């Protein structure tokens, strides 16, 4: 049976409920009466201030509680009296319903926030909340926030300081962040670099500005979307405003992506320069062999469609002499001018290349007929033969041209180049400054040249060389004053080979040095035995001067034969004096000091500069036989002969007319005071035995009339 509940029961039950409620509040709680006496409190209140259970009693005065509190280390920042006065004032001033908050510092460095509210009849209800943890965690949050800001600043600096453009997009294609170089590279307006800007809008803008990403605008957008969708790396090179930009797309885990943008314009230009250098000649800027061969290979397809083309191989004449005598710096300048002249003769569709050294090539495409190629070759020969004026030097070179026609002379690059080269060879052996078409059988001619070269190496040992002598007749003396030694080669199989054919080969291979030495000895030996004191003339090649022992060789030849030096004449050509070459001039002076006479041979045939006559005191000028040949046809030949003879007189040099074949020619040069004549009109070159006969006959007075 249930006991009856009394009022006292109800009251004590209510008190218990209130206690339980007070204790369950998560903060300290107490009530102060109007007379500042403690009415009630909970355990949290005691715990906050560290009040032992028995020291806190109902009805305790505020003074007693404050004193106890201070003794326990609370409010260390204030004295108990100060704290009490302030507290009383705060409570006393708040007799309304509003909550007032005050912070206190309590033992253990904790921060307590008290809030009091006045309730009439009850007093002040005060709550005490320990804010220590809350404050600490908000401080951490503050610190974190500051740290994050610092990091952001650093990131910003890093992102903006890299030279590449950089931007990050989220999975929805919205811009998260981009740096300053990104905006600059594409010159993007502010609204497109703000976070949230859409990739589609940015791309749309760039295409409107004329961006070229390789294909069409749609192609690029489809590709980019595809790369984004598949979360893959991708790259693209695009052009905008004359600049080249490399874009690299890097996927991120969350579906977004980062793209980097690099202005590679300069790098590209550098690469283009390197590519250009690999295919062009550095000196002349013309395409080089590699590029030429490629262009030629490229025309092969056209040949299949019935087109015609021509390959011209060009070689400069006398260029080696320019290089050797005037130096490489001038040689280089000549090559540059040669390139400019060559280039000037061709059309836009033709290719002019420098294959190396003084070798050039022209690809003429397309052509209608072989005469087109001949026309160009003629123009090239002509333009190359006019003098080059470089650093005060008048330089005369010339060019020989070989032509191969495609497809007639070959359909492949290799054969065309080879055949044009063979044709060039022929042009050169024809006497230079001319052109020649390829002809079948030229290959055999080259083989023959090789045979000459190897045969020449053995000619001396095999006694295949001999000398003939051509008389020079003194017009005043009316007798043979000199005989020019001319070399002959009787090849074991091929018979007599003319010097014009083998001497250039001997010079190229430097075989002219031992051969020339043999000629000197042989000529001196022969002359000593002649019945008169006619001089002997020996031709010297510039190559012999380069061997540096020419003086000794001449001296030895004179010494061994016993020929007086005054009976020896040495003939040199203008090419030797192309530049004033100190060692060469020195050798000439030393030879002359021995008593040997020095003649300028073939004067007027090559470089034709009167300054050469001033550079050395020649004893004799031999006027080239081409003037004699042109005497009837060209009026100026006579004038030139006359001028040279006059010049010889005034410089104290005797003059010889070469190639006199007719009586008219003889009379013409005699009339102008020429001292000596040489030519078929008097005698061809004679074998040694006939020289004896001639000179002996000359001694017989009745035969004198012959001359
Ligand atoms: P060169 O020194 O001018 O020799 C004169 C050349 O003219 C000779 O030709 C001679 O046969 C030719 N000749 C003489 N009179 C006449 C004429 O009335 N009409 C024509 N059309 N020609 C005439 P060759 O013997 O064939 O010699 C050619 C060149 O070879 C020489 O020209 C000379 O430069 C060179 N040469 C010959 N022998 C030697 C040598 O021993 N050493 C060197 N280094 N060169 C030589
Ligand atoms: Mg000569
Ligand atoms: Mg001559």
Q: Features of this protein?
A:
single chain, alpha+beta, Beta-Lactamase, Alpha-Beta Plaits, 4 domains, 25 helices, 26 strands, 22% strand, rod-shaped, binds ligand C2E, binds magnesium ion
Write the layout of secondary structure elements.
Layout: H1 7-24, E1 28-32, E2 38-41, H2 43-49, H3 62-71, H4 80-93, E3 100-106, E4 110-119, E5 123-130, H5 132-161, E6 165-169, E7 175-178, H6 180-186, H7 199-208, H8 217-230, E8 234-240, E9 243-251, E10 257-263, H9 265-279, H10 289-304, E11 309-316, H11 319-326, H12 328-345, E12 351-356, E13 359-364, H13 370-385, E14 388-390, E15 393-395, E16 399-406, H14 413-429, E17 435-437, H15 442-459, E18 465-474, E19 479-491, E20 495-497, H16 499-508, H17 512-528, E21 535-539, H18 542-546, H19 550-561, E22 568-573, H20 582-594, E23 597-603, H21 611-615, E24 620-623, H22 625-629, H23 635-651, E25 654-657, H24 663-671, E26 676-677, H25 688-699
Parallel strand pairs: 16-17, 19-21, 21-22, 22-23, 23-24, 24-25, 25-26
Antiparallel strand pairs: 1-2, 1-5, 3-4, 4-5, 6-7, 6-10, 8-9, 9-10, 11-13, 11-16, 12-13, 14-15, 18-19, 18-26, 19-20
Helix pairs in contact: 3-4, 11-12, 12-13, 14-15, 17-19, 19-20
The chain binds ligand C2E and magnesium ion (2 copies).
